[in-house]
Amino acid sequence: MRMVAGKPTLSPTKITTYLACPVKYRWSYIDSRGKWYLRAKSYYSFGTSLHRALEKLHSVGDLGVPTTDEIKTAYEENWVDAGFSSAEEMAEAYNEGLDMLEMHVEQHRKRPIQGKAIFVERQFDLDMDKFRLIGRIDRVDEHPDGTLEIIDYKSGHRSITADEVGSDIAMGIYQLLLKRRFPERRIVATLYSLRTGEEASASMSDQEISDFERDIEKLGLIMLDEEYFELAPKWKPTCNGCDFRPLCRKHPEYGEPGFDVETPAQAEAWTE
Ligand code: SF4
């Protein structure tokens, strides 16, 4: 892995990318040719716009809940329009996001959150010797009994289950980061659907957090030692939605059904 100044960093996004496909990790983080193939995604733009507006809502603290108009203004000012295929598609997404925010603000007013937001869009990190584990948490609420609740907003989900929270790598990493920063506190992780207002929570025991930490450390070392330029891409159904498919198609062993590397020049292009 290419080292920049200091220790390499691993985040939930990097780890989930590696687990999904190590070749994708190469194109995303190691090999600069990958960036020419990245396409803007409308769902990223949509999620980013919503997160920025919510940051405005929760960063003022419980004493000054902004008005719906203020949230709307924050949403409009921070709207990201990259990746939409047409003005109509963007307008539809914009209005959908507005409805979601209005519902969320309304819920926030009717049912004041028991905890107080003490961190909003805050990055935490943990030194794991060979690398730094980092994670940016949407919101952390502090409850009267001292429990710290991680809140992660999902704009694409309708329903959320506790199992989903329990098996989500990002939520595990957030719990680990917060536990190591606040070892005396109980940590709870909650996923919140902005579409429906549904939420579900899970919490790892201290032992589970320690086991998870060891697993992340082992995985991190594997990621750091990986010979990315030696990896051969292998076609799988999820390749169909991957930005890097044109690059992987140049590899003679890729094996996409119905697609052959047509010329030796194409195959050679893999190693350029
Ligand atoms: S096209 Fe497939 S093999 Fe290539 S990077 Fe994407 S997911 Fe990985």
Describe the structure using short key phrases:
Trna Endonuclease, Chain: A, domain 1, 6-stranded mixed beta sheet, binds iron/sulfur cluster, alpha/beta
Give the N-to-C terminal Cα separation.
18 Å
Name the CATH class of the domain at 116-224: Alpha Beta
So, CATH architecture of the domain at 116-224? Answer: 3-Layer(aba) Sandwich
Fraction of residues in helices? 40-55%
Counted by DSSP, the helix tally is 10
Which small-molecule species are bound to the chains here?
A: iron/sulfur cluster
Query: For the report, how would you describe the main beta sheet?
Result: 6 strands, mixed
Order of helices and strands: EHHHHHEEEHHEEHHH
Q: Could you say which overall geometry the principal axes of the C-alpha atoms support?
A: globular
Q: Look up the CATH topology of the domain at 116-224.
A: Trna Endonuclease, Chain: A, domain 1
Strand content: 15-25%
Structural class: alpha/beta
Cα radius of gyration in angstroms: 21 Å
What is the fold's blueprint, element by element?
Elements: E1 9-10, H1 12-20, H2 22-30, H3 42-59, H4 68-77, H5 87-110, E2 116-127, E3 132-142, E4 148-154, H6 162-167, H7 169-181, E5 187-193, E6 199-202, H8 206-225, H9 245-248, H10 264-269
Parallel strand pairs: 1-3, 4-5
Antiparallel strand pairs: 2-3, 3-4, 5-6
The protein binds iron/sulfur cluster (SF4).
The site of iron/sulfur cluster (SF4) has 11 residues, from helix 2 and helix 9.
